[in-house]
Design brief:
This protein has helices spanning 2-16, 63-67; strands at residues 31-32, 38-39, 47-49, 72-73, 83-87, 93-97, 100-101, 123-125. By secondary structure, it is of the alpha+beta class. Strands 4, 5, 6 and 7 form a four-stranded antiparallel sheet that branches. The chain has a two-stranded antiparallel sheet with strand order 1-2. It has a two-stranded antiparallel sheet with strand order 3-8.
Amino acid sequence: MKASILTCSILLGVLCLQPSLATAQTQASPVADTQQRLVGSRGMTLYTYNPDGDSGHSQCNGACATLWPPYLAAAGAKAMGGFGLVSRTDHSLQWSYQGHPLYRYAGDTAPGTALGDGVNGNWHVAQVH
């Protein structure tokens, strides 16, 4: 257990060196926190959107993507394990987990918060399973 927490702490520390979505377009690959939730840079919670299903396509664009920013990947990012990449309508790459595109929620302002969980019955914290 201590090794898992240490590994996550190290990984989160590395990810914290990455700029936030507000200042950058692309992010490092997601990691699981100690509660098996997927988090992105700076430990911010990641979400899945029911209408996306596991099709590998995002249904959240325009105003939706303003409130629920896609968790974008850099060109050249590599799929690994359950993490993949999906192409968005603007041809940017978005991280996915087991085929489900990943998003942040604009209402989450601090690491570990998950205020978007359950919104409209369609948004859920992404979990490792």
